[in-house]
């Protein structure tokens, strides 16, 4: 079948062996915790997908990366969600390396060669909280930076080698600024607590990571220009672009798994595949348009608004598609296998990730009126 063939070919090229490893296991096994999908991702070299080739990685372009994420989502929803957080963190290191001290490049090479997994401790999860105001604080104590707080949920919490976390750090003039800390998982004071209580997306290992008086070398903390006004700087704009596109592509993949089941189940000459596949394919084309633009356009507010537009449009497309697919599969499929109901539930998760459409209403209105884009 040609549905998803481009995405799976891209994954076979950049992460060889992963698609088959996932296809060989039933969905129920992949989605439970601990999930064998995470080990398969590591074994196939997935951690290096966005690491540049000069740092021993696959050097995937934005277009290639979103296609891989759709393919992953169609096989294992939990892995798509978990690896979005990893890739997002790696992309941030790639951007930091462009003006960094050289440490970032060495770290990227280690991630690719040693197949290290990065968990993302960036603020999200609390309704009504601005996602640029993290739950983890940082204080300068002599020649160290000390972190306290927690992140919940935090994907890859039990498999991570490194945690990249947004923190609040006061600079020399006392202004609180957003910073990014890189914390080895075995650092004293790092612990994991159970948090995720639903079976949906349990394989993403989204538990709580707690930091208690975690001491870091200041070189492991990258300060940004973001203050309390929540207007992202260039590093944060880049991060949000990657996050929104990779996340959306992964959830489109989850809905695509339902479409694939419908197409394989029906297949008669009178069946019309358009009503199942057009919405998700159109949503993916919007994601791909922004991904292509990342190659030759400025990474600015305009491009980020494009990514948010594609994401919110995909939410609506996924809702329509999953409803149509569950109905087409019919009651016997619902009774005979949990896959359809599970995929429909998992696909709905895109709406729960930041920034929500309701939180971005006022910032988008202000942007249209000529203001800088704030992240709600």
UniProtKB/TrEMBL annotation:
Keywords: FAD, Flavoprotein, Oxidoreductase. The keyword Oxidoreductase applies. Residues 121-214 form the Acyl-CoA oxidase/dehydrogenase middle domain. Residues 29-91 form the Acyl-CoA dehydrogenase/oxidase N-terminal domain. Pfam families: Acyl-CoA_dh_M, Acyl-CoA_dh_N. PANTHER family: ACYL-COA DEHYDROGENASE, ACYL-COA DEHYDROGENASE FADE28. This is Acyl-CoA/acyl-ACP dehydrogenase.
